[in-house]
Amino acid sequence: MSKQLSAHVGIAATPERVWEVLTDLAAYPEWNPFIVRAEGAVGPGRRLTLTMQPVGGRAMTMRPRLIEVDAGRVLRWRGRLVMPGLMDAEHTFALQPQAGGTRLVQSETFRGILVPFVAASLDRSTLPAFAAMNEALKRRAEEPARTGAVAAGGTGSGTP
C-alpha cells in the first residue's frame, strides 16, 4: 500500500533564492515549524539528520539519504522506519519557475505494511506540517536580503 501527500505554495522569489533558503539546513530552527533541526551536507548520496515535528504529533528524528539534488529545481530524499518495508518514504521539494517567482511543491510518498495503519495520522498531522513549512519558507524567501547590521540587530542603514 502507498500513500501520497502534497502541498504547494507560490513564492515571490526566484527559484535560486528559494533553493538557498531550503538548503541552508543550519538555519531551519530559525524559521521551520516542521523540520525543526537539520544537519548534514546537501549532496547526492549524503545522509541528513532531520528532526520533524508533525502538527499535534511527537517529534521524530530520521536519517534519510539524498537521492536527487538539482540546484534550484529538485531536492529529494529517501528514508525508512527501522527496516525496509515497514514504512519507506520518499520526500520531494520541486521548485518550478512561474511568473513573479517560484511554485514550490512539497510531496512525500509512503510505502510499506504500516501505511494503512498510519494513513489517517499522516493526513491529520503531516500534511498540515507541510503546509506550515511551505508558508514559513515563503515568508523567509520573500524577506528582503539580510545585511550584517540587520542580522545583528541594527537598523540596516549602516548605523547601530
TrEMBL record:
Stretch list, region Disordered: 141-160
Bias type Gly residues, positions: 151-160
Superkingdom of origin organism: Bacteria
PANTHER family named among the record's database cross-references: CHROMOSOME 9, WHOLE GENOME SHOTGUN SEQUENCE, SRPBCC DOMAIN-CONTAINING PROTEIN
Protein name: Polyketide cyclase / dehydrase and lipid transport
